[in-house]
Amino acid sequence: MSNSSGVELPVLEPEAVAPCCPPLTSAELSEADAAKMAAMFKALGDPVRLRLFSKVASHPEGEACVCDIQDVGVSQPTVSHHLKKLKDVGLLTSERRGTWVYYRIEPSVLAAMSQMLDRGSK
């Protein structure tokens, strides 16, 4: 059962999003940018992590209680392990509220990943 409290999350304007990396077609990635993005893509390369990330990203309230997303075919400790991996590479943020932990997508992550892969108008 979810413990939704209706907390409003800030909405970032497109100009407020700070991508980490330039589009691949505009310039070579620096060693640091490549390492950062590779870690994110590697984390999403696991099917369970990708499903958990998708469940959080598509949750109607913009955040999801771990209690609402743990039905991905693995044990609860394994879900916690995968969520920690997603959080460690900067794909998710979390907040503990009482007994439950709520996860949300780091605001600039999807835009940064998308912009990096965007071919632009070449």
Task: Provide structural commentary.
The chain has 122 residues and is α+β, with helices and mostly antiparallel strands. Helices cover 42% and strands 11% of the residues. The protein has helices at 31-44, 47-57, 66-69, 76-88, 109-117, and strands at residues 64-65, 92-97, 100-105. The protein has a three-stranded antiparallel β-sheet. A hairpin with a 2-residue loop joins β2 and β3 (100-105). The protein is elongated. The relative contact order is 0.23.
Helix content: 40-55%
Distance between the termini: 49 Å
Strand adjacency order, main sheet: 1-3-2
Structural class by SSE content: alpha+beta
- The average pLDDT is 80
Descriptive keywords:
three-stranded antiparallel beta sheet; 122 residues; elongated; alpha+beta; disordered N terminus
Write the layout of secondary structure elements.
Blueprint: H1 31-44, H2 47-57, E1 64-65, H3 66-69, H4 76-88, E2 92-97, E3 100-105, H5 109-117
Antiparallel strand pairs: 1-3, 2-3
